[in-house]
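User: Hey, my collaborator sent me this sequence without any context and asked if I could get a structure. I don't really work with proteins. Can you help?
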Amino acid sequence: MSRLQARFAQLKAENRAALVTYVMGFDPDRATSQAILDGLPGAGADIVEFGMCFTDPMADGPAIQYAAQRALAAGGTLKGTLAMVAQFRQADPATPVVLMGYYNPIHAWGARAFCADAAAAGIDGLIIVDLPPEEADELVPHCRANGIDFIFLTTPTSDDARLPAIVGNASGFVYYVSIAGITGTASATATAIDEAVARIRRHTPLPVCVGFGIKTPDQAAEVARLADGVVVGSAIVAAAENAREHGRDPVAAALDLVRTLAAGVRGARV
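Assistant: No problem. I've predicted the 3D structure and written it out in structure-token form, which is a compact way to encode the shape of the chain:
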């Protein structure tokens, strides 16, 4: 059983959704980013999405765009990102870590070699935003060969005709992008999310996690009542950066927000 399968099985037994937290590797520097990454499970994150910094993050809103710029300025690389996960694994063998980003750096590395190296570092899954199902065959087989789940995105425009193609090669979980837009902007209504999750579940038994636009504990709790997981990224990234800009501890700010989000998720179905 993979780490993702084990974590979702545990959460199902506890009758609660997963809190999935996103942070960017190397933002604003390697040491701060490592401290945030290492602290996420203790703050209540059930699954960690770790961002691979990239020059052209076209699916992301301003908070994560700026995070990528800071990370690159701090010397962020894909090799360094894997090394950070390997360091995280020294103390935490259980929390699933999913790399999220864009395909170009992986293509440059080489899909076969990258998947082997990612697995060795302790990566459990990949979310590659700009790699649609029709283009994923050069990466998915290497993921499978190394025990890495490939997680596809679905959106409000993914209808019943399109969903089978999306979830056909998916594993780990399905990520529902709840708005037609970039990260960290608008928020979808509970009714729209409920309908979308039901539609996706008709096509796959995989857990469904919902992200984009979730910023507060109340929003997280609302989604946690409807889906198998709640993804929060931009709000955490922004909280850390706002603290840093004002001379406060970005690590504490990020983890404090995660604690409040975790409380919302964990109390949602009580």
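In plain terms: The CA atoms of residues 56 and 199 lie 32 Å apart. You can pass these tokens on to your collaborator as they are.
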